[in-house]
Amino acid sequence: MSPRAEHRIEAAGFQMLRYALAAVFLWIGLLKFTEYEALGIEPFLVNSAIWSPLHQSMGLRNLSKLIGVIEVLIGLLMAARSVSPLASAIGSGGAVLTFIITLSFMATTPGVWQPGYGFPYPSPMPGQFLAKDLVLLAASVCTAGEAYRAARVSPMNPGAAPASSAAR
Predict the structure, then answer these.
(1) DSSP assignment letter at 123
(2) Where do the H-state alpha helices sit in 32-59?
(3) Residue 18 in contact with residue 80, Cβ under 8 Å?
(4) DSSP code for 48
(5) Could you tell me how far CA 22 lies from the centroid of its own chain?
(6) Where are the alpha helices (DSSP H) in the chain?
(7) How many angstroms separate the CA atoms of 75 and 86, rounded?
(8) Beta strands in 9-81 (DSSP E)
(9) How many of the other CB atoms lie within 10 Å of CB of 64?
(10) Are 131 and 112 contacting, i.e. CB atoms less than 8 angstroms apart?
């Protein structure tokens, strides 16, 4: 395979990664406006040092809607890459923060570790459900780095050094 073909495949992979992440944020963010999704995230929220105070003050449905707005905004920003690499980078940064927070649930949510085994044996739910966020965190870091680099070398900033990544 030629280096040019390899570059195109890698670049296509980054595009797919970005827009798949954006779609997940939009989809899951919109679901936060439903009762069943709010009830589904409640065990994570009530046990989280970050979200528990907001859960107590806002109530479950309002907090779920707030999280939904944040997730939809992250998805829209990530998807804006062709219009504004900087907006996309900020969205990807929001995704990084989101997955750091959701991974913290592994330490705060009861039932994450398989009863009778404990760490490092995650339970099917919620442990294995949360474990996938390691991959989503890594994907978000990749898209953030690429978008920040593209913002630095955009036509709006012609004096910047050229991007060195294959994912331009």
Answers:
(1) -
(2) 35-46, 52-58
(3) no
(4) -
(5) 8
(6) 3-31, 35-46, 52-58, 60-79, 85-108, 129-131, 133-152
(7) 14
(8) none
(9) 24
(10) no
Q: How far apart are CA 23 and CA 4, in angstroms?
A: 28
Query: CB-based contacts of 62: which residues, under 8 Å, 6+ apart?
Result: none
Exposed e or buried b per residue across 35-44, where buried means at least 16 C-beta atoms within 10 angstroms of its C-beta: eebbeebeeb
> What gap in Å lies between CA 125 and CA 53, rounded to an integer?
24
pTM above 0.85? yes
- For residues 37-65, average pLDDT: 97
Structural domain harbouring 147: 3-152
Q: What percent of the chain has pLDDT over 90?
A: 85
Residue 76 resides in a domain: yes
For 6, 15, 55, 56, 100, the CA distances from 50, given in Å and listed in that order, are: 42, 32, 10, 11, 12
Q: Is residue 77 part of a domain?
A: yes
Q: Tell me whether residue 162 is in a domain.
A: no
What's the angle, vertex CA 109, arms to CA 107 and CA 114, rounded to 5?
85
Quote the mean pLDDT of the chain.
91
Nearest to 89 by CA among 163, 33, 10, 27: 163
Number of domains in the chain: 1
**Closest CA relative to residue 45, chosen from 109, 124, 97:** 109
Is 160 part of a structural domain of the chain?
no
